[in-house]
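hey so u asked for the seq, here:
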Amino acid sequence: MVYNSSGLSLRKPGLARQNPTVALLQPGFGTPTPYDESNFMMQDSTPTLSPRAHRLRDAGFKLTTARLTVLAAIESGDGHVTSGELLERVNALDPGIGRASVFRTLDLFTRLSLIRPTYITSSASPTYVLMPDGHHHHIICMNCHRVIEFDECGLAALTRDLEQRYQVQISGHLLELYGMCETCLQATATADEDS
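ran it, structure tokens below
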């Protein structure tokens, strides 16, 4: 433990004390000591949160260690991660977080439209995709499984029409288009010319 000059115990060095006045006014310590910054080892108690963590908190969910670790593991990559890759990343960050916590967190993030499962390859397990601003777009080559991301989707008018027609509020979408990439098209054309 660390103690200030008045003998009050403080948290371990590096840990933030949310309200130093509370410790100063605890019973049994006599007259409260005026707050003196040099008596405390403090840090900013408000960690920097990603926009997705803010959305999670704003939706009324606790920012648990498991949830923040899973979110950090997803955000640390390119926005695409399989469950196996995610389990490895989470284990590297905090080995105390179990598989069940990771999958419960993935389910919660999916319900909140923070991520979406997608089947980019022919694998039975999905790839989880971050949903920046509630939408994400891919063109997926059916031959080599190359994923091409693009920003513009032109679905704003369709979204408004669907909201009015069905009396719903759309919070996001995932657009996947399937076809053949330029490289595979050229390889196919070359193979057809040779035969």
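The helical segments are 20-24, 51-58, 65-75, 83-93, 99-111, 156-166, 182-194. Residues 1-45 have pLDDT under 50 and may be disordered.
lmk if thats what u needed
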